[in-house]
Amino acid sequence: MAHCPFDFFTDGKKHTICLVGGGGKTTVMYELAAAWAACGRNVLLLTSTHILQPEDGSFAADAAAVHNLWQQRRYVVIGTPELSTGKLTEPPQGLYNELQPQADVILCEADGSRHLPCKAPAEHEPVLLPDCDMVLAVAGMDALGRPLAQACQRPQLAAELLDCSAEKIIDAQMLASLLLSEQGARKNVGTRNYYIVLNKCDLLKAAQQEEIRRLLVGAGMDEHRIWLRERGE
């Protein structure tokens, strides 16, 4: 079960959560979904862009299949299959509209990162659900010490945002800036609740973890909305 420190994880309320940013979004999304489903909550997963179609039996093509899985205390993935890629795109609007009032928690992967640990969003990203009440931004700590050109999706956009070259080595300050900028991971968040997941923190020494946490908090981020997540949690 996910060891999520965020307040919404155990508040028992209905939430629609969009995940954005770099590598680790899908892992975090499925971890949270499994934990909530084990507690008996009706959990619905989808994407507003593209996501791999799961092979564990959690995909449901219609409302009847969704309810069958919910009765088994399982999370459910919905979407439109792309036969050429094996991926799912956003689900039919009618199906989502039918299921949305019945779900206790909805999790949506709202942009892609091509498995890179950080990113700068393109003009069309992210695609947040209209009913989304919170955004989780994910960044992999394996970005640190690598050039933007190697570790960041759309490095030229990131370089423009950070006012540096794409060959610049990513440090904690740069990563914090990408996570807090309204042209970065915070794009289109508006008044929604905003949380940050620092993924693969087991790669960092304690002092490095504290440095990036301090930078985020110093820039106004609530420390209770930062998850220093280690692999395998």
Description:
The chain is α/β, with parallel strands linked by helices. The protein contains seven helices and twelve strands. It has helices spanning 25-38, 63-71, 93-99, 148-151, 155-162, 172-180, 206-218; strands spanning 15-21, 43-47, 51-52, 76-77, 80-82, 87-89, 105-109, 118-119, 134-140, 152-153, 193-199, 226-228. Strands 4-2-7-1-9-11-12 form a seven-stranded parallel β-sheet. Helix 6 (172-180) packs parallel to helix 7 (206-218). It is globular and about 50 Å long. The mean pLDDT is 95.
Oligomer: single chain
Number of strands: 12
Return Rg in Å: 17 Å
* Structure class: alpha/beta
Low-confidence stretches: none
What's the overall geometry?
Answer: globular
Mean pLDDT: 95
Strand content: 15-25%
End-to-end C-alpha gap: 8 Å
**How do the helices and strands follow one another from N- to C-terminus?**
EHEEHEEEHEEEHEHHEHE
Number of helices: 7
Q: What level of helicity do the residues show?
A: 25-40%
As laid out across the biggest beta sheet, the strand order is 4-2-7-1-9-11-12
Q: The biggest beta sheet, please?
A: 7 strands, parallel
Quick overview of this protein structure:
The chain has 233 residues and is an alpha/beta fold. 27% of the residues lie in helices and 21% in strands. The chain has helices spanning 25-38, 63-71, 93-99, 148-151, 155-162, 172-180, 206-218; strands at 15-21, 43-47, 51-52, 76-77, 80-82, 87-89, 105-109, 118-119, 134-140, 152-153, 193-199, 226-228.
